[in-house]
Specification:
The protein is mainly α. It is built from 4 helices and no strands.
Length: 85
């Protein structure tokens, strides 16, 4: 089961299985938008806050971020407002 706010694993699988030649323009656009949104959500969510199944799903879909900090935490740290100065 995917984490809240993330694309479900069944949606990802069904989009990957259906040949592009059988998809409408709307389906192509929807798949692209969902993929970008899920990739962004993966990057924003620290690995330490992901469930085990989400980490595994991100690894298989090449969406895993290789850090334990969210982008927001990195930005805070960069300007000296975070926990790590």
């Amino acid at each position: 089961m995917s984490d809240t706010g993330r694309e479900s694993f069944t949606d990802k699988a069904s989009a990957a299985i259906k040949p592009d030649s059988q998809k409408s323009t709307t389906e192509h656009f929807g798949d692209k938008m969902k993929g970008h949104g899920d990739s962004m959500a993966s990057t924003l969510q620290p690995n330490s806050e992901k469930s085990g199944t989400q980490k595994m799903g991100d690894t298989f879909s090449s969406n895993s971020n290789h850090n334990d900090q969210s982008l927001l935490d990195k930005a805070k740290n960069a300007v000296g407002m975070g926990d790590k100065h």
